[in-house]
Design goal:
The complex is a heterodimer of chains A (about 110) and B (about 110). Chain A has about 110 residues and is mainly β. Chain A contains no helices and eleven strands. Chain A has strands at about 5, 10-15, 20-25, 30-40, 40-50, 55, 65, 75-80, 85-95, 105, 110-114. Chain A is globular. The termini of chain A are far apart. In chain B, about 0% of the residues lie in helices and about 50% in strands. Chain B is built from no helices and eleven strands. Chain B has strands at about 5, 10-15, 20-25, 35-40, 45-50, 55-60, 60-65, 70-75, 85-90, 100, 105-110. In chain B, the strands form two sheets. In chain B, strands 2, 4, 5, 9, 10 and 11 form a six-stranded mixed β-sheet that branches. A five-stranded antiparallel β-sheet of chain B has the order 1-3-8-7-6, with no helix packed on it. In chain B, strand 9 and strand 10 (about 100) form a beta hairpin. In chain B, about 35% of the residues are buried. Classes of the chains: A mainly beta (about 110), B mainly beta (about 110). The interface of A and B includes residues 41, 97, 99 and 106 of A.
Amino acid sequence: TAGITQAPTSQILAAGRSMTLRCTQDMRHNAMYWYRQDLGLGLRLIHYSNTAGTTGKGEVPDGYSVSRANTDDFPLTLASAVPSQTSVYFCASSDTPGTPRGYTFGSGTRLTVV
Amino acid sequence: ILNVEQSPQSLHVQEGDSTNFTCSFPSSNFYALHWYRWETAKSPEALFVMTLNGDEKKKGRISATLNTKEGYSYLYIKGSQPEDSATYLCVSGGYQKVTFGTGTKLQVIP
């Protein structure tokens, strides 16, 4: 089934450790996004990529980095995790940036930083 | 309106009741308005995308309207069923200016 695969589905991480959340799509979408979802705050954009080879900062980029070496993969890295990064992370894609046809979301990664 | 606001935050309805909720968004520089249905432990599922003032979309018992001049969209569910229980998320904007509402959590009581 075409879509977005995120891994892992959940993780408990010690503060100070690094971690990479993986996101892969098989729809050949140009644009990809990482959001975090926190209770009462909705989805907030962390980083985005409009096309392979380019990335940009979203609303809450601090403490996170991304890369977009190819069209399919958009990993999110936490270099040194802190408890405030405990959240559910969603990867999404769209065929073009901000397309009116909407976004496809992955199933999320639940991260707990202790 | 500077952000995307949804109301109510949550509601409970009896099975068979019809219900509606609101999404308010900045009317200036409008691009597109999306509605998603988001069940617990799953990813958001696209319901509708609307771009034109006066747009009305329908999918089964769910429909939505759009007023871009005053900056609001209504989502209606006719004859609610327990399987309609989910969070309904409104998203406004496009390109690099996408803004998510915080959702309306609907619980349909059998």
